[in-house]
Amino acid sequence: MRAGEPVKPLATIGYEAATQPEVIGKLKAAGVEVVIDVRAVAASRRAGFSKTLLAASLADAGVDYVHFRDLGTPKLGRDAARKGHVAEMRRIFEAHLAEPAAQLQLAHATEIAAERKAALLCYEGDAKGCHRRIVAERISAALGCRIEDL
Fold first, then answer.
1. Which residues contact 4 (CB under 8 A, 6 or more apart)?
2. Domain contains 4
3. CA-CA-CA-CA torsion for 78, 84, 87, 90, nearest 10 degrees?
4. Cβ-contact 81, 73 below 8 angstroms
5. What gap in Å lies between CA 78 and CA 61, rounded to an integer?
6. What is the residue-level pLDDT of the chain in tens, covering all 150 positions?
7. What is the CA angle 62-65-66, rounded to 5?
8. How many domains, in total, are found in the chain?
9. Which of 77, 88, 132, 149 is the most buried if burial means most Cβ atoms within 10 Å?
10. Residue 5 falls within a domain, yes or no?
11. Cα–Cα–Cα angle for 50, 12, 3, nearest 5°?
């Protein structure tokens, strides 16, 4: 990012109720250049959303892909989110985010978002109930960018 250049908004997207072509279409329409996958486990029973196939499909669409496993929610946090216990998931994930590996990947994700239009990707359809909101808030605070949920 050059001095005086406006900071690009940071996008977030969940694929819970969408097909892969729908997700890629939203990303392209929003001008996303790189997807930052923030799932602890980048495998999915949903067609087209496992890491290798998703990365290849995004590449075909001209969108880069990076997976930051340490920005994913630990199992206890995922279990809390599945039960609708958002406050508990937030507490678990905030503690996880203080770990050195997560801090390193958060710094790397922030660098990427400073340079290119990025989207944080996770499963949960509603960003308010997903840990990606916490990651987005941290990046937004560091860069002064707004968050747009696709």
1. none
2. no
3. 20
4. yes
5. 30
6. 555 566 789 999 999 999 999 999 999 999 999 999 999 988 888 889 999 999 999 999 999 999 999 999 999 999 998 898 999 999 999 999 999 999 999 999 999 999 999 999 999 888 888 899 999 999 999 999 999 999
7. 160
8. 1
9. 132
10. no
11. 120
Q: Identify the domain containing residue 75 by its residue range.
A: 10-149
Tokens (6 digits) for 20 = 């892969």
Give dist(CA 138, CA 82) in Å, integer: 23
Three-class DSSP category at 34: strand
**37 with 51: CB under 8 angstroms?**
yes
DSSP state of 4: T
Q: What is the DSSP letter of 124?
A: -
Cα 52 to chain centroid distance, Å, stands at: 16
Element (H, E) at 97: helix 86-97
| 49 is a domain residue | yes
CB neighbourhood size of 142 (10 A): 15
Residue 24: phi and psi, rounded to 5, are: -65, -40
Contact status, residue 119 vs residue 150, Cβ threshold 8 Å:
yes
pTM summary value: 0.92
Q: What single-letter amino acid sits at 63? A: V
